[in-house]
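Appendix C reproduces, verbatim, an entry submitted by the partner laboratory led by Prof. M.T., so that reviewers can inspect both the input and the predicted structure.
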Amino acid sequence: MAKRVAVIDIGSNSVRLAVYEKTSRFAFHLLNESKSRVRLSENAYQNDGNLQELAMQRTIDALKDFLSIISSYKARKTLCVATSALREAPNKKEFLQRVKQELKLNIKIINGEREAYLGAIACANLLPEQKNALSIDIGGGSTELTLINDKDVSNILSLNLGTVRLKELFCDEKNKNGAIEYIDTKLEALGSLKVSTLIGIGGTFRAISEAIMNNKNHPLNKLHAFSYSSTELNDFISLVMKANDTELKNLGIKSDRFDIIKPGALILQRVLKKLSITNVVTSGVGVREGTFLADLLRGSKDKFPQHYNSSARYILDSHISEKAISNQLNTLAKKLFDITHKHLGIDTSYRKDLSIAAKLYPCGNDIHFFSKNKHSYYILQSALEYGYTHSQITLISTLCKYAKKKLPSSSHIEKYAKLLPDAKTLHALSYILSLSVSLVAHRPRNIDFELVFNDGVLKIDSTQTLRLCKESVNKLEIIEDFKVIF
């Protein structure tokens, strides 16, 4: 596979571009993301589905700019997919030919089931593991739904139910009852499905989730994997449905969504009414990422290897030059956790987060040695994007921020209280990571000491003097009922 790959997604409402760069076999990061609200399907549903000239020209103009961006990154492969607006248009061949002649770009029109599948594999691979979940991707012309259990996707559905379609067929005529009847008829395809989690994909869902996130002062400014209750979603939708433009703005809805947010919110409202949803998860990924992953993972059944995380691997590839120290810290932190967690009262579920923090802690060192903790914190809070909950991201980045320094401050704990464990657990985890860093202060080729823990006393046995280790450990802010001797 090419090192740099561009993906263009042509939807009914917007066209989007993403340019990805691989850093190793399955690790990648985003180089560029661009979007243009072209409304390709504007007025199409009132004209027997035919694309209109102004909308087609807007889309061609946007694609031309996208190709310029792709060229600037020297991407070796461009994947271009189109969804509902094109697959339903009787005059789609005219548009495809114009794009091919004017831009030399080949567009692949994918059917609804493929669209649903691509969005679902993006969620299955790039969100924290979900069980008994239903992904929903509300687009301009269609809505895709798929069952997700861990990394497995099934029960793929594509419905002719979208925001622009509803707007033009019902909402412009102020026929809400007609829209509800139309939606409910389409949703009969779900049958008696039993799911507890709804995973939201697409612009409508992201717009609503972003507004909810900002209104509740969520401490982590990251939309991907933001989760909340179905009650919160239902209550917010009720506010949206009766709001005028000024009130929509006050709710946090951006102006470019004013005319289609209510049709999308109505679809969500009817889905929540039909299904017994309790939890809602926001996906920052969708068809574009799914298209990229289907190409990247085509030899592994569209799944990452077990226990593999692309974001963590990307950080290791791009920000950690000293892999040996990274591995030593990871080994030490897990060993210290295993022999002390019962005494310290730490739940075993935190072992994984501690080991990731230890392995990725050196990521800020190559930016600036004297402020490495600050840079590690920023890199992890920002780039630890895929596969982790907001609580995990916050804990991992916090541990690295305070490693080999004082224990996490009360102000930091207060700011992120919704996402962090209790102060005692946090301080214990922070101390273990700081202790791990201190014990390799002399940068040994191999770990040259043994760890023995009894009754709150950690003994470091070694044939070496470990002078630097002792000095470093003695500078650490201690925790209650824990002593280190050499």
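The mean pLDDT is 96. Additional entries are available on request from the coordinating office.
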